[in-house]
Amino acid sequence: MLKPVIFKANDIRGITEGDAPEWDEAGAYALGGALVEVFGLVGRSLVLGRDMRLSGPRMSAAFVEAVLDAGTDVVDVGLASTDELWFASGLLGLPGAMFTASHNPGAYNGIKFCHPGARPIDPAELVAIARRASAGPVPLAPLRGSRSESDVLGAYADHLHSLVDLTGIRPLRVVADAGNGMAGHTLPAVFPGGEGVPPVEVIGLFTDPDGSFPNHPANPLIPENLLDAQAAVREREADLALVFDGDADRCFIIDERGEVVSPSTVTALIAAQELDRHPGSAVVINKITSRSVAEVVAEHGGETVVTKVGHTFVKAAMAEHDAVFGGEHSAHYYFREFWGADTGMLAALHVLALVGRSQAPLSELAAGFSRYAASGEINSEVEDQAGAIDAVAAAFEGRGEADRVDGLTVSGPDWWVNVRPSNTEPLLRLNVEARTEDAMAELRDRALTAIRG
């Protein structure tokens, strides 16, 4: 079973549990064979990982059987965060497949793919995989592949530590909310405690990987899922908090007051550091990243590259422009020194280095990089998404310049409005930014009225 709805813009994602599954083990098997054929992997190897989702063992096992039957070897890294799988692909020089549904509820599972060196696949390749998987079984290879296991967690942590110098930072107390996701797997390796590197006291929340998500959904984009970390920062007088999504490739940052630091502000903070180390480099952002980032990049002598929302688009732009860093407003952060791939943990280490080398709290450090009022992402369930987008265009006709690069963006001298369909969910997403809160609220309300009627 492979319902068309599971094929998203950047990956595969759909329901595997309950009375109405959207794909199953037979579908996973079909996808494994299709991947081998489309990528030409017969006689070659593939690295594979999975997150803590309850369907992960059975779904990934079916996929592996197909890959082996099609004549491809599998290097299985077992339980892993998505950025750990990207690391394995880069380290081993192999294409990769990661079984995860990221921040989606526990009934979901999915697959993210990459080429060797964690390079992104093209959306057209995902379409080709979908078509081949639906066309019937891939012929068995004359020589079946072999499966081996590899533990790359220690090497992953060592690589992250090699990219951020944390020697000599002041002692920090950090709350880390894993949301019962894969950050609970990677945190002990990255923050070993005792005399380990870095010298950080970690207060862990929900660090036992559990695909039933017993405490709160592993989706930090929803404000309610940040409340535990915000309360813990205040109660424990911590310097900051890190909140990860289910597969731990995203990290939200909370300051010492318990206030969320906008991912755009985090992008600006890290961009400034990376451009000081690599002058004149490019920084990639997407259509809903704050204008503050482009301003900071220019001030530090860099070039801003704007692309569509989504990791495949950002990774492609990172490679095309040899960008030193990239950031999305969804808290995906990309690094040239990490094969251009996204890693929430490396972003966290950069923020810790910044705070640890300053006597000022994070809230003060971030203040100079937050220059606009933002609505945050506002989601709407809309049956006629194209019609709703056209209604927004009509509502703002004559007020600014419009483009359809990624949904609809209307922009003025010191404001912009973007409305676009989600890449992963049946939602229409609205983001608004303006110089003042009052201006932002007026623009937001006008757009919402057009969207929701």
Automatic annotation (TrEMBL):
Lineage: superkingdom: Bacteria
Alpha-D-phosphohexomutase C-terminal domain: residues covered: 377-447
Keyword set, alphabetical order: Isomerase, Magnesium, Metal-binding, Phosphoprotein
Keyword match Lipid biosynthesis: no
Gene3D superfamilies, sorted: Alpha-D-Glucose-1,6-Bisphosphate, subunit A, domain 3, Alpha-D-phosphohexomutase, C-terminal domain
Entry's Gene Ontology molecular function annotations: intramolecular phosphotransferase activity; metal ion binding
Stored PANTHER family: PHOSPHOMANNOMUTASE (PTHR43771:SF1)
Name of this protein: Phosphomannomutase
